[in-house]
Specification:
The chain has 371 residues and is mostly beta strands. Helix content is 14%, strand content 43%.
Length: 371
Amino acid sequence: MSNVKIIVSFCNVRLSGLVALALFDPSSGECRVLELADELAGLKGITGLALSERRLYAAAQVPDPQPDRQSFTRSELLVFDRAGLELLARYPFTVATDVHSMVWRDGALLVVSSGTDELVQLTLEGDRVAAERVLWRLEPDGPRQDTLHLNALLSSPAHLLVAGFGKKTSDARDSARDGFVIDVACGEVLASGLDQPHTLVELDGKLIVCESRRGAVRTALASCVEGLPGYARGMCRLDDQLFVATSVGRLQSRATGAVVDNPAGAGAPAGRCTINQLSADWRLLRTIDLTAYASEIYDLVAIDDATDWPMLPELVWRDLSIMRLSLGLDERNGQLRRVRTELAQRDQVIRELRETLQTIRATLGKVRPPL
């Protein structure tokens, strides 16, 4: 494990493009931000990674050209040289939208198009995308929109698996409670009833999945680890151990207690941005806090040949970290101000209702019934 590192992809970052990728050392617990090409400074994050023999592929979140819509669902493919992390090509997706997760399989790149409920295949000629086409849909006649929220892929010689949240029972995304994992080739449902599943890994012949909203890691049959410190998403294996990421999500109260919901949902921030090391017998060995780097992790990918990748200088990263923490503090202070304003408005309404009630009682007390 000493030479193996883990690529960490951050998403929905505030410091646009500067903290999109990092390299995590599983032996020491050290995390170093990677220095990307200057032209990537406007990115909002990366929501999927895949490795081929010579390339690193990344799905980048690109700011919407109409900023008033506050949408970051546009996606671009970034192609990096695996040896030195040089940016070789950029490709704006034309079929896939809101891309989450990707795998390299049989000389082609497969991506999950969350925005259209599709699995999309990209055929490459060198580093150029020659074709982009829909490879699979769970509901062939369904609308090309996010109704199932497909988000994760796992490729093995025998299987191609995809995970999704399932259908919502209301307009709220967090109403989806029947998440699933399905084998694309044969249509077999390998797991169902999952609560916002993300990230698929195979370990000792077993399918492992993050059950994100529960902060859990589980097999298809049972939960193995619960209570991780945030929204569980992003996972990779090194030998017989698992490394699982969590993100800052949104606090939601339920009849069964408070949970850390999807970061895109409503509510106050809750949880931490961490990487958690799990043993072969599912014990939590350690938790490394990465909150100073970002609030959301999407993907973890193991790599053994990243020794020549450029790192952001420590002094630059220190300043960025201070900026990010300052932004986070400003956001929390803003939320506190909004809560105080709402409480003051509520108290004012209560005072006015009490005064009105007192006036009505006083008026009724003056009215005497006729003799």
